[in-house]
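Lab notebook, bench 4. The sequencing result for the construct came back, and we need a structural model before the next group meeting so we can plan mutations. Quick request posted to the team channel:

Model the 3D structure of this chain.
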Amino acid sequence: MSNYYTDHPEIGFHLNHPLMQRIVDLKERNYEDKEHFEDAPVNYEDAIENYRRILEITGDVAANVIEPNAEAVDAEGPHLDNGRMRYASKTLDNLDATRKAGLWGVSMPRRYGGLNLPNTVFSMLSEVISSADAGFQNIWSLQSCIDTLYEFGSEEQRAKYIPRICEGETMSMDLTEPDAGSDLQRVMLKASFDEQENCWRLNGVKRFITNGDSDIHLVLARSEDGTRDGRGLSMFIYDKRNGGVDVRHIEHKLGIHGSPTCELVYKNAKAELCGSTRMGLIKYVMALMNGARLGIAAQSVGVEQEAYNEALAYAKDRSQFGKKIITMPAVFDMLSRMKAKLDAGRSLLYQTARYVDIYKALEDIARDRKLTPEERQEMKKYTRLADAFTPLSKGINSEYANQNAYDAISIHGGSGFIMEYKSQRLYRDARIFSIYEGTTQLQVVAAIRYITNGTYLEIIREMLGNEVCDCLQPLRDRVLRLVGLYEKAIETVKAADNQELHDFLGRRLYNMTADIIESLLIIDDASRAPELFAKSANVFVRMAEEEVIGHAAYIEQFKAEDLVHFRAVEASEAE
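Done. Here's the predicted structure in token form:
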């Protein structure tokens, strides 16, 4: 029987990373839960075995329930019924299966009914579910919104809402509005305090809300009269049981059909303030978005894997000109690149997740006791690493998902354009990944300061100090030469002292950064498991050379006056 976890040992490899010992020790707090909860691990080995067991359960559900339902969900989609969203019938089956398997409340402490899993394992679960159906992964993974309520809500709110999520109730984050997409400072949904009822009331419209008719919503709203920027925004909790929100429209989308995207109308809806006023965008949404971006990276890796699976299976089966097409260089070149991007992108995802795990666990511990100076320094280090890696992980993997899905169709030829084949659905589903939760262009904006201030160069130099096996030393030497080109390109852009030029060339610097970091990650993986990653390391470093050398030449020759050739519309015409 197929299992989407055990069928891909590359996923389980990342459970064996050296940082996992520290992550588990922090997350389990010296395994104190073993005294109070029967399913709590007693030591590190027990915790890792527990993670594997949960991953195997999820792999089974993904392969044998969610994936077989995916085409029916894609065809039916959600319905609008008298102001309410109704899931596709097979989506209800998926929800039922994941609830019975105990796959909710994944990250929450056991005292609330959660599984207390680290983000690295949650990301693995997300990847596995996304491979089966990326649209359902959206619905399931939005349970991670509860992390924000856990971090910033009151203990009363935690006790009230977290157990419900652990039992399988759904969540959404209601941020976007018709006039506030990426620019969330323009959010105008009104929050006013009802003195008589001693509660907040929400009025206005939200648009493009994923899983918008969920049970519990986190809502960004304007609580401060007379403001028009981010300083007037607060975060609120809306409970569907209280009523006051209707679904006005469900979007008809290119892909992820099973994931309902709703337009919501708030009419004097009762809500609770989460945390402090004025901190909604400045602090809480930033935390929410960072978690969501890592979720999209995991979703992307899942589709990268499934696109590769479909392309490989078809290439092994399809014959042309008297031979299997997998033996043709044009085809095996595409397949090897798909696999290399998948392996390197996955390594970037889980390295990011591990960084997040360490600083989040230390933040959680700091709620109960004062951190030692060493712990504070550790938290600062891993916060910085997580902040730097998250925009790389989300942006690069969302692009890889699109590329792999595109190549899967190409390998299928005309059949890939036919609706009966899965490749077309993967292609349609993947297109949103580089758009929602911050476009790739916005990931470049988030990453660029770490490029120009030397943060990534510092990380790269540290990574170059890692030991690798002798057989991979020549590959690392080739990456070292790329680092020299990268450093020179950064200095060239900075020396130009031109903001428009800086912004224009930012994407190339971003891609160079990812190419080098992923090359070093996949070389490290191949050193520890050559049977899994040696081929991908060789292919990926060659791809990185191809791109980094090209970008370096482009940047070296580009001058500020060249920008005139790229402005499609003059400013006077655009006004």
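The mean pLDDT is 96.
Will bring this to the meeting.
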